[in-house]
Design goal:
The chain is α/β, with parallel strands linked by helices. The protein has 14 helices and 8 strands. It has one domain: P-loop containing nucleotide triphosphate hydrolases (Rossmann fold, 3-Layer(aba) Sandwich), CATH 3.40.50.300.
Amino acid sequence: MDKYVLDQAEGLRRLLTRSGSRVVAVVGGPTGIGCTSAVVNLAAALAAHGKDVLVIDEQQPAGSVSELTHVQDSGAFAAVMSGRRTLTESITRTSLGFSLISAPRDERISHDAAQCRALLDGAADIVLIDAQLDRNGALSSLGAQAHDFLMVTRVAASAITEAYACMKRLHYAHAIGQFRVLINHVQDPADAAIAFENLSGVASRYLAVSLVQAGYVSEDARVARAKELSRCAVDAFPATAAARDYRRIAAELLFWPMRPAPYVRGEAQDQNDARYSVGESDESSRAAAHYALPFPAMH
């Protein structure tokens, strides 16, 4: 289909289905799984599609989007929430084509869900949140209002186990019923497909949660090299398999069916729910996740 026709159809869909920005919260398992790389590369790919993209960086400075792009305005989020500055005045346009605002936890803690809507209902076509979970595995009031929750994992026993545990905590804390899954660092696409299908079955059986395949990203050392250069694979090494994978996922993201953002009562209540509700043992998570692996776990 002609690209112009696709753009027309996508624009009409947006007018009919929602107002404000589409918000995607990106979450994942252990450090190094690639959540921040996914956010940066998807944002750059979406910007290359001509979309106005805002990245909200909830992570700590080390290894964060803010550090990568050399954006140091840590007080921007608080200034917007207090009304001292407008969103337009507070965001920083990065060299990778997307806008960025840092939202560290100490600046988010005093703001409820209603206040956060001012940020999420802005002019951007798409908002990507590099989400930071609290010690109970719950999202901030900001992250919990996303329309989509993108879980980043990889084909490895520890990563699959943590992805399942993370979904379980988020499901109980926020009543999230669907996650999209991006499998990172993939060497064999067949393993990624099997891991997703098995994980989807486990999530449906144990949590009554549905998973949707967002795609996979090929293992590629140039993703890390691009980060060392304060760039991303989509921008620095566009011919690589990983860059092509990110561009494909970004193109498909534009046509994800729009889901309503969940009702959020506030960050403090979500934290209480997470503490109370995550009653299943870690052993149950490991047992359930074992069946999601495309190969027997190594001992």
